[in-house]
Amino acid sequence: MSTTSTTSTTPQTAPRRATITDVAREAGTGKTSISRYLNGEMSVLSPDLRARIEAAIARLDYQPNQMARGLKRGRNRLIGMLLADLTNPYTVEVLQGVEAACHALGLMPLICHAANEVEMERRYLQLLTTYRVEGVIVNALGVREETLRPVVGSGIPAVLVDRLVDGLVADMVGLDNRAAAELGTRHLLESGFDEIWFAVQPFEQVSSRQLREAAFREAMGAQAGQAGQAGQAGQVGQVGQVGQGGKGRARGHTLVLNLADTAEVERSLAELDRAIDAATNAGHSGRGGNLANSGGAARPAAPHSRRIALFAANAPVALCLALHLKARYGADWQSRVALLSIDDPDWAELTGVTTIRQPTYEIGYRAVEFLHERIEGVQTAARDCLLPGELIVRASTSR
Amino acid sequence: MSTTSTTSTTPQTAPRRATITDVAREAGTGKTSISRYLNGEMSVLSPDLRARIEAAIARLDYQPNQMARGLKRGRNRLIGMLLADLTNPYTVEVLQGVEAACHALGLMPLICHAANEVEMERRYLQLLTTYRVEGVIVNALGVREETLRPVVGSGIPAVLVDRLVDGLVADMVGLDNRAAAELGTRHLLESGFDEIWFAVQPFEQVSSRQLREAAFREAMGAQAGQAGQAGQAGQVGQVGQVGQGGKGRARGHTLVLNLADTAEVERSLAELDRAIDAATNAGHSGRGGNLANSGGAARPAAPHSRRIALFAANAPVALCLALHLKARYGADWQSRVALLSIDDPDWAELTGVTTIRQPTYEIGYRAVEFLHERIEGVQTAARDCLLPGELIVRASTSR
DNA sequence: CTGTTAGCGCTTTCAG
DNA sequence: CTGAAAGCGCTAACAG
Q: Does the keyword Transmembrane helix apply (chains A, B) (predicted)?
């Protein structure tokens, strides 16, 4: 690395940008006409004047100052886009839709990445407010009505993405969580798994997670025959009834994975490991040794063991599970447990994991459309736009 | 989906935000004092006045308008961050560093995602200019000096990330490409591979790709014994000399993968397949049928076959290769070819692919620091900051 | 210590 | 068709 450091501070004499006044002078006319030209009011300009202006602008390489325009007009075409976590492929994809829509509607998105920090979130929201954005699209984490106060309180329209915010009434667009979770669960059930673990991050605060988890439990309860009682929701809730390998009812569990806390994750995964070993009929002795069960190294899972599947509530959770399983059971972990995930990251295809793809692009696009309408003054009651997910079956669940 | 559409357009009567004038009136003083308060010039305010102002601000929930401040001051603390492709994990990681640095330096990054569209790139650069950002950090694709003209021409400082821009002299921070490529190549060589394919996107335009490819060729040429002549660089260049399985010199090839063109990719991959099948001594009758060379279809890799490795110039290329190989050779493709990639995406660990991790966070952080210095007027000659990559050996190359 | 006075660059009445 | 004048919300000399 070569980093010279001749710190010779001397406030650069930037070749001052041309202003509307300069152009007016250069074109031998008044600022008003220039302004008219800039705003496309061509019909009100004589061809001659128009030509002179055009020339002057070119000669001076003039570019109108958006800030100034915004100040005067009271609208700057800026909207804020608050993202909880760019590390999640979901977010990036939604963003693509947002960008496309903004482009189409002449808006400029101010992208703010909270990087999973509630504090950042607050800071950005506040910042967006001071920059007088015309609206905000929010996909955040700990957002409570209170956090959104500075913006919503200022009368700045907001539309929510993926999750609702408790006290707040606002448009929201996202996945049809209930349907998606049900779709996934049914697929697993139909594929004949006897035990399904729904892994999800702490969901008390996040509506989408809540809905997914609830729908999973319901779907488990509604298996084929009679309806089952809903299991209690807790660290590790239990849903449905025990099914003995064959055709009985499949068993359902909820596993909370607090990705923000390594120790907790560790504990949850241990819980899971125990279940897998049990279901799979294979004793597994910790990090050193392994599987000293069935004599022959034949198949990893004993013949009559229960088939177990993991249902990840989103990509980050799925990745966490996959990494763990791979570390524990080796490259061949999928022969032991199936994995299904909501979200469809690139490694899913590579790894053969079944997923439920969210219509991310459209989610982003619609969000901007909603926001745009609000900005234009539409007064409709808060709307919810729930888009369907698409099941992509891969090797993991279709052996 | 439920989307009501009672489009009752009625330009919302937003509860107008309080202005500095309102506060002044409310506090029974002049705007100047308010301004002073806002700018922390507390020492110049009597405790009494100060208290009144404080109260007034709170009462009115006043928030200074950044646009107006910027207009007056001539600086708005905004910097532009132009990204070529958020889909690439590298980009997101760099962004984290950028955000952290901005936070620390009191800057607000305007993130612009070109999504691999040269046109977008131009548009955004232009836009950033009109918003009068104080500087830009550029990580772009087709950027030629010309595209950057609007900004650099305006005297707006710019710092490049990852790649240089031909005609432009500006600070740049990125990976030490030569060292990284050499590191990777040497690792492969030392691991005993007999044939190495360096896969890279078209590199004529992108300095970092160029450097990586060149360094790869050099490293191949500099193998153990005598130096070998540099192979020609072309669609499929050849480097180094043929080595017969055992201890001879390893053979090197460059494979260009134009990810933007499916057909081209197809062709390049076919080329690669042939090589793999040949090296691997195994007839593989793919869906089209091919390789009618070696008779027996015995084990995937014959005993005395050459060991072949792929060296991907970055994550997108690596992903493309991995997906293809998996599709062609099944889940067990890694027993046939080894894969090493510059960049360390999450699926690398999951999949056991060896990588060279870039110090992404630091790259982003340094870029902002450089830019900040420039904004403050530092006049030093253009600097290059080359950070080292870290080799992360995984199963793929360490059997 | 505090207020008055000019604008920053642009849009928008309101008269020509 | 065209321009002069009055600000948008805020800061920065200058005087008190």
A: no
CB of B65 under 7 A from strand D?
A: yes
Clarify whether residues B258 and B124 are in a common domain: no
Tokens of A150: 């500075």
Q: What is the pLDDT of residues A336-358, one digit of tens each?
A: 999 999 999 999 999 999 999 99
Size of chain B, expressed as the number of residues it contains? 399
Burial group, residue A287, by CB count within 10 angstroms (0-12, 13-18, 19+): exposed
Cα–Cα distance measured from residue B126 to residue B303, given in angstroms and rounded to the nearest whole number? 59
B297 touches A: beta carbon within 8 Å = no
Does the pTM surpass 0.70? The reply is yes
What pLDDT score was predicted for residue B15? 67
Our measurement of the distance from residue A302's CA atom to the centroid of its chain's CA atoms, rounded to an integer in Å, reads 39
CA distance B324 to B28: 72
Q: What is the pLDDT of residues A123-140, one digit of tens each?
A: 899 889 999 999 999 998
CA–CA distance, A259 with A240 (Å, rounded to integer): 26
CB proximity A27–strand C (7 Å threshold): no
Sheet containing strand B354-357, edge to edge, reads: B236-240, B251-256, B195-200, B308-312, B337-342, B354-357, B390-392
Cβ B359 vs Cβ B378: under 8 Å: no
Q: What is the pLDDT of residues B44-82, one digit of tens each?
A: 999 999 999 999 999 999 999 999 999 999 999 999 999
CA nearest to A254, candidates A204, A290, A303, A296:
A204
pLDDT 10s digits, A77-117: 999 999 999 999 999 999 999 999 999 999 999 999 999 88
What pLDDT is recorded for position B309? Answer: 97
Classify residue B393: in a domain, yes or no: no
CA–C1' A64–D7 (A) = 19
pLDDT tens profile A195-211? 999 999 999 989 999 99
Does residue A139 share a domain with residue A48? no
- Asked if the structure places residue B12 within a domain, the reply is no
Nearest by Cα to A283 from A305, A256, A254, A311 = A305
DSSP string of B344-397?
--HHHHHHT-EEEE--HHHHHHHHHHHHHHHHTT------EEEEPPEEE--GGG
Q: Are B197 and B179 in contact (CB under 8 A)?
A: no
Q: Are residues B123 and B255 in the same domain?
A: no
The predicted pLDDT at position A7 comes to: 38
d(CA B153, CA B146): 10
Contact list in A for residue B361 (CB cut-off 8 A) is none
Residues of chain B with pLDDT under 50: 1-13, 226-237, 240-246, 283-299, 301
Average pLDDT over residues A138-153: 81
Pairing verdict, β A308-312 and A337-342? parallel
Q: B312 with B341: CB under 8 angstroms? A: yes
Which pLDDT band holds residue A304 (cuts at 50, 70, 90)? Answer: low
The pLDDT, as a whole number, for residue B88 is: 93
What's the mean pLDDT when you consider all of chain A?
86
- Coil, strand or helix: which one is A42? helix
Please check whether residues A30 and A60 belong to one and the same domain: yes
A292 part of a folded domain: no
Looking at the fold, whether A164 and A266 belong to one and the same domain comes out as: no
Give the C-alpha separation, A265 to A256, whole Å: 8
What pLDDT does residue A231 have? 41
Q: 3-state SS of B207-247?
A: HHHHHHHHHHHHHHHCCCCCCCCCCCCCCEEEEECCCCCCC
* C1’ C9 / CA A37, Å: 15
List the B66 CA – C3 C1' distance (angstroms).
23
If asked whether residues B41 and B57 sit together in one domain, one would say yes
Tokens of B385: 């900051």
Structural domain including A47 reads: 20-64
